[in-house]
Amino acid sequence: MDDSLGLPNPSGPENETTIIVSNSKKQRGPNRGVALEEHYRTKGKVSIFILEGLNRPVGEHHSKLSREAGIIIRNFAPMQIKRWDQVSDTDKDILLKKLMVMINISIE
C-alpha cells in the first residue's frame, strides 16, 4: 500500500517501540532514625512518658519511640518468625535493651 503522505509504515520493524511498565509503587526511603541520633548526640537520651491510664507514649518525643522500635525490630528481630507472640522472651529483652540505649521510658 502506497502512503501518499510520506509517513512511515507502522507495521515495519524499524518502528517497533519497547514500552517498559513499572509495577513498583513509589515508596519513601527507610527510616534511619537520624533525628533521634542527632538528639542523642547533642542532648543525651530522649525522655518518653507513658501515662498509666492512657497506655501510650505522650510528650514532645513520643513518635521517636515507635520509629526507633520499628528500626530495631526490622534490623535485629529474627526474620524467620512471622508474629510478635512467637518471638522468645530472650529476643524481646535484647531488642528492648537496644531501644533503651537512646530512650528513657517512664510510666507515670
Automatic annotation (TrEMBL):
Domain of life, source organism: Eukaryota
Protein name (database record): Uncharacterized protein
